[in-house]
Amino acid sequence: MPTRFTYEELKTATENFSKKLGQGGFGSVFEGTLEDDTKIAVKRLDGLGQVNKSFLAEVESIGSIHHVNLVRLGGFCAWRSQRFLVYDFMSSGSLDRWIYHGNREHILEWQCRKKIILDIAKGLAYLHEDCMQKIIHLDIKPQNILLDNDFNAKVSDFGLSKLIDRDQSHVMTRMRGTPGYMAPEWLSSVITEKVDVYSFGIVLLEILCGRRNFDRSQPEESWHLLGVFQQCWEQGTLLDIVDKYSEYMQTHGSEVVEMMKVAAWCLQTNYTRRPSMSSVVMVLEGRMNVESNLDYNFTDPRLQNTAVEHKKDLTPLLDSILSGPR
């Protein structure tokens, strides 16, 4: 179980919370060092109400589980109205800083991207299938995927997650998540782990194409990556959307296009046609084939409102999830 830290211990470790790594709607993250020289990231959640729910959800969901592809929750602290979560420090920060054109330090080669994709899939498969209770993350996006010094990927930020018993097929919950990564069935509020599979499909497509799923810097007809993906599939021009700023990706274009089929499988509008994350892992490891006869009609009734939704996000985008320097 996570260690219960005192406020003074965290204050000392972070040099009075002086090295801020990021800030979001629920609080901030600070770099720190424990007495044994272990580097940590301390998330400070300010306020009450929703923040307390986020704190409890995170401690409850990942406090007692360990997996190489999940960010480890090492400890927590409750002090007055503030709540603190203590994580392993992830030196390479979040995935979004490495995959978007114009927002990355250097171009990730294809083998590195493949490893990151497999790591994310393994982390989600563990949450969905190998824990005593099924854990649905509900907010999978590049900002919530953290990378260590060797670019091993770990799923982070369980503040919106839901735990459900293994004999439950679905859960009823209010709409939560980040527009652009939310599955169509959120409109019905009947939610399964397949919402994470859909979000994974969006993240996978972003990694392969090197762009955001909604990007106003593109021509208006190309704002929505899903729409571009659907059109290129129909026209047989998927090579055109492979990350054009990466020679590595262009060189392996045919393999990247094959990987896009995995994304398409995960993005099926009918959630019952999406694979389990363990099936995705088997496909990525070459032990299984992608389902045939996929539906490439990704028309989502919310697409018309996406531009507005991206301005008034349904939940605060937590920069506090970033436990690496920006």
UniProtKB/TrEMBL annotation:
GO terms for molecular function: ATP binding; carbohydrate binding; metal ion binding; protein kinase activity; protein serine/threonine kinase activity. Transmembrane segments: none annotated. It is a single-pass type I membrane protein. It catalyses: L-seryl-[protein] + ATP = O-phospho-L-seryl-[protein] + ADP + H(+); L-threonyl-[protein] + ATP = O-phospho-L-threonyl-[protein] + ADP + H(+). It holds the Pfam family Pkinase. Keywords: ATP-binding, Disulfide bond, Glycoprotein, Kinase, Lectin, Magnesium, Membrane, Metal-binding, Nucleotide-binding, Phosphoprotein, Receptor, Serine/threonine-protein kinase, Signal, Transferase, Transmembrane, Transmembrane helix. SUPFAM superfamilies: Protein kinase-like (PK-like) (SSF56112). It is found in: Membrane. Its EC number is 2.7.11.1. Residues 15-288 form the Protein kinase domain. GO terms for cellular component: membrane. Mg(2+) binds at N144, D157. The active site is at D139 (proton acceptor). ATP binds at K43. The keyword S-adenosyl-L-methionine does not apply. Belongs to the protein kinase superfamily. This is non-specific serine/threonine protein kinase. It comes from Helianthus annuus. The lineage of its organism: Eukaryota, Viridiplantae, Streptophyta, Embryophyta, Tracheophyta.
